Amino acid sequence: MRTWKTRKVGLSTAALTAGIVLVGCSGGNGGTAKGKQRSPASSTAASTAASTAKVADTALGKALDKLAFQGAGRSGEGSGACLGSAVRKTGMSEKALAYIVKADSDDMGTVIGGLNKVSGDDAALLASRSLREDFDGCVSKAVLSDSGSPKAQSYTPPEAAAKPVVGKPNLKPAYPVRAEQPVSSSIELTKGLVSMFSSFARDESQKKTYAAAGQCLATSVYKAGFSQETLHFLAGGAPLGTGSIVEHVPNDKDKAIWQSPRFTQELVDCTANATPTPLAEP
Question: Does the pTM exceed 0.85?
Answer without folding.
Answer: no
